[in-house]
Amino acid sequence: MKVSKGELIREIDKYSIEKLGIPSIILMENAALGVVKHLMLNEKEYYVVICGRGNNGGDALAVTRHLIAAGKKVSVFSIGLNPMSKDCGVNHDILCNMGVKITNISNVEDIEFLRDSIIRSDVVVDGIFGIGLKREVRGVYDLAITVINETSKKTISIDVPSGFSGDTGEVFGNCIKASKTITFETYKRGFLNYGSHEYTGEVVIEKIGIPDFVVDKYHNKEFFLERKFIQKKTKERALYSHKGNYGHVMVIAGSEGMTGASTIATKAAVKSGAGLTTLISCEDALQAVRNFVPEAMWKKNDDSQGIETLMGKVNSIAIGPGLGKSNETLNNVKRVLKNTDGTIVIDADAINVLEGKTNLLKEAKGNVIITPHPGEMARLTGMEIKKIQSDRIEIAKEFAREYGVIVVLKGYNTIITNGEVSYINPTGNGAMANGGMGDCLTGIIASLCAQGYSPMDASCIGVYAHGECGDKVSEHKFVVTATDIIDNISKTIKELT
Ligand SMILES: NC(=O)C1=CN([C@@H]2O[C@H](COP(=O)(O)OP(=O)(O)OC[C@H]3O[C@@H](n4cnc5c(N)ncnc54)[C@H](O)[C@@H]3O)[C@@H](O)[C@H]2O)[C@@H](O)CC1
Ligand SMILES: Nc1ncnc2c1ncn2[C@@H]1O[C@H](COP(=O)(O)OP(=O)(O)O)[C@@H](O)[C@H]1O
Ligand SMILES: [K+]
């Protein structure tokens, strides 16, 4: 599923109209038909439609015509005094020619009339503003939005909830709280922001007749990860295969007092299919792994020569969980970046020690995946967490491009990007918000890298499967722990093949 800002829509719209010769009124008609599909014509009888003066309002006026043609009772309100856009005017004139009464909302008494109509209606269709909203919502617009939110039983927003920025996810003063938003051609970037669901409700994408090649021409390669895409990439294990076919993962993790992180990462690597897994750590952590992950091999962290030799042979290295923020960790990161041409998954303390030293990433011999949560990303970039969360994709992309790495920016809607192509993960949930969950993901991604998946595919499959596993377990559990994921990840990956 494609994700974009509003400017893409304006570009593809322009190309379709000017180069392909599709009249803009046809696109508007297609948009209206896309919305009508979701208006529950079989169950509902009385609709209130509220239109602005731009093309979003034009869509709503075309929707009105279809509702009337379907025999529904409709009250139509036009709000504001701006001149109408050309196509809005066309649909307005058609309704006037049909003898449909359109009530103007320009003062407080009109707002009370709107309130009465909404109270009696089954559904409100919101076509006040779309992606053309530029400034703070004030005056009658502000009042109308409040009345809709207070009284509507069910609000369906056209393209975006009015008052919401499809680009940034900001609310311009006041905003419709929809039960459903029918958006066109692409999932809007702003919908990804934390809290946007409160305004958009369920989001549905409708095509409006613009050919895919036009969208691809301008699309900046941002996608929602879809199950079928992950299924296509995830391969079954071959009948005649042996452990040598599934690679060797080195896990550098754990320290005195933080042995759980290394056990989790190591076990996650084993359980998600690596041919061989070796933990490098202190004696306590090795003891834990000997007890809880008998399948894994281990090497004490003081055997420098042995470790460096092994680094040159393994297919992937996961480094960071539970290592502690120390000079020793920094030296280990440097050593890994220098000595392996396999894929390196950098997490937790291995990220933290790179604060102010991110240029080291540019010296990596192998491919690098970093898996920060927003707090770690803030430390790494020197930005505030709030800033990171307000523009997750762009910040992750920029970092990936600058340092030539893959960034897996974790949290709700984890972003996976190499700076060129970006994926947004829909799986996972709040039940997974507890310690060890990230260590587990690190082990899974490193394991998939060792098995021969490209770093980007391993990141996408790993993140998606980790979240889907959490979703399944959470169906009957209040909290999902890393141990729950480890116990179920093999089944989840199997279901994805
Ligand atoms: N491919 C496309 O681009 C298509 C777009 N369509 C619709 O067109 C919409 C975009 O249309 P427009 O660009 O005309 O923009 P909008 O209809 O979103 O809004 C623009 C209008 O609102 C006014 N306005 C903006 N901010 C305001 C504020 N704070 N207070 C008061 N008035 C304000 C503007 O002056 C203008 O009159 C989309 O969201 C979608 O619904 C559809 O018609 C189908 C085709
Ligand atoms: N609300 C949520 N929705 C989706 N995924 C979540 C949610 N909360 C946590 N997760 C996932 O759980 C993992 C937590 O990682 P992290 O914060 O690094 O944990 P830790 O450092 O304790 O191991 C990430 O993969 C994250 O995306
Ligand atoms: K709208």
UniProtKB/TrEMBL annotation:
GO terms, molecular function: ADP-dependent NAD(P)H-hydrate dehydratase activity; ATP binding; metal ion binding; NAD(P)HX epimerase activity
Pfam families reported for this sequence: Carb_kinase (PF01256), YjeF_N (PF03853)
Domain YjeF C-terminal residues, every copy: 226-496
EC number: 4.2.1.136, 5.1.99.6
Family in the record: Belongs to the NnrD/CARKD family.
Complex formation: Homotetramer.
The name this protein goes by in its record: Bifunctional NAD(P)H-hydrate repair enzyme
Organism: Oceanirhabdus seepicola
